[in-house]
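During the reporting period the student researcher (J.K.) took over the structure-prediction task from the postdoctoral fellow and processed the backlog of single-chain submissions. One of the processed entries is reproduced below for the supervisory committee.
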Amino acid sequence: IKLKYYLPKAIGLFILLWIPAIGQPIGPVLWFLFSAWMLSIPYADYLFDNHKVPFPTMRDALKVKRGKSLSFGSLVMVCTMPPILNLFVMPVAVCGATAMWVDQYRD
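J.K. obtained the following structure tokens:
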């Protein structure tokens, strides 16, 4: 289900990058936002799966608070870019997703 959600959007953004006047200025920004969104999904997925919440319901819950999900995903993405820091970011991101779930999505 997650791959069916990811692939069409990723392919569409990839095609957008090849459009000369539109793809170069807009494509990287959209790709960054899409990557941040897609990073917030797997980190939140562990917690939603533990509580038997199906993927479409989880996706809808993350969409309701899209700003928090995008800020979490973009922060994780930026922190995983430096070579040594990325080794420590993954466990911290799991803790951050847990804190985000407890604070925002538990209900």
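The committee noted the following: Residues 2-105 form one domain.
J.K. will present the remaining backlog at the next meeting.
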